[in-house]
């Protein structure tokens, strides 16, 4: 999917398409213990080949993955993206991760507000949802600050790194709430 044009930004962060030159930053961030802990689908160890595959997903028609960068510095702060659910294309799911040095500074909340409002305004979406591991209090706080509503705890709602399942929290944002 093509990224928003013009690019989404506020006074601190910008969202842009990933570029091949970003691969080292993606590898570094995805090898930080917190990222794969809460996103078990991220391979470990995370390699340059994994990053190149991720960057190439910009061509997928049903999803969009963007870099969160400092607006002035251009430094990679993290990632944010969304994908339409295959069982119902009116539902999209959004997710994000941050570089260790970007945590606790509001970058995830700002990026989530920017992308979620664009998705609900520009895409044929009736519901945007976000799922977090029950132990990921920081991600849950980001969702609430960005205006998402907590709906439920899903028992065994997401895969765990060890092959089992973990409970997760479900949040949503509807077009009329954005």
Tell me about this structure.
By secondary structure, the chain is α+β, with helices and mostly antiparallel strands. The protein has five helices and eight strands; from the N terminus they run E-E-H-H-H-E-E-E-H-E-H-E-E. An eight-stranded mixed beta sheet has the order 1-2-3-4-5-6-8-7, sandwiched between helices.
- The N- and C-terminal alpha carbons lie at a distance of 22 Å
In terms of quaternary structure, the protein is single chain
So what's the overall shape? globular
Report Rg: 15 Å
- Biggest sheet strand order reads 1-2-3-4-5-6-8-7
Topology, number of strands? 8
Name the structural class.
alpha+beta
The share of residues in extended strands comes to: 35-45%
Q: Give the second-level CATH assignment, the architecture of the domain at 8-127.
A: 3-Layer(aba) Sandwich
Fourth-tier CATH superfamily name of the domain at 8-127? Gcn5-related N-acetyltransferase (GNAT)
The total count of helices amounts to 5
How much helix is in the residues? 25-40%
What order do the helices and strands follow? Answer: EEHHHEEEHEHEE
The average pLDDT value, as a whole number, equals: 96
Return the CATH class of the domain at 8-127. Answer: Alpha Beta
Q: Topology of this protein?
A:
Blueprint: E1 8-9, E2 13-17, H1 23-30, H2 34-38, H3 48-56, E3 63-70, E4 76-85, E5 88-98, H4 107-122, E6 127-133, H5 137-145, E7 149-159, E8 165-173
Parallel strand pairs: 5-6
Antiparallel strand pairs: 1-2, 2-3, 3-4, 4-5, 6-8, 7-8
Task: List the keywords.
178 residues, alpha+beta, Aminopeptidase, 8-stranded mixed sheet, 5 helices, 8 strands, globular
């Amino acid at each position: 999917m093509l990224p928003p044009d013009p690019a989404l930004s506020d006074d601190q962060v910008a969202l842009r398409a990933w570029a091949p030159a970003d691969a080292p930053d993606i590898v570094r961030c995805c090898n930080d213990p917190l990222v794969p802990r809460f996103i078990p689908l991220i391979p470990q160890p995370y390699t340059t080949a994994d990053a190149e595959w991720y960057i190439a997903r910009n061509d997928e028609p049903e999803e969009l993955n963007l870099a969160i960068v400092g607006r002035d510095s251009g430094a990679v702060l993290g990632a944010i993206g969304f994908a339409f659910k295959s069982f119902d294309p009116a539902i999209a799911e959004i997710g994000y991760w941050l570089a260790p040095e970007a945590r606790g500074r509001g970058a995830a909340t700002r990026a989530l507000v920017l992308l979620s409002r664009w998705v609900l305004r520009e895409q044929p979406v009736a519901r945007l949802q976000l799922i977090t591991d029950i132990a990921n209090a920081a991600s849950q706080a980001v969702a609430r600050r960005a205006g998402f509503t907590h709906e439920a705890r899903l028992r065994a709602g997401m895969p765990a790194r060890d092959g089992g399942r973990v409970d997760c929290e479900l949040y949503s944002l509807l077009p009329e709430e954005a």
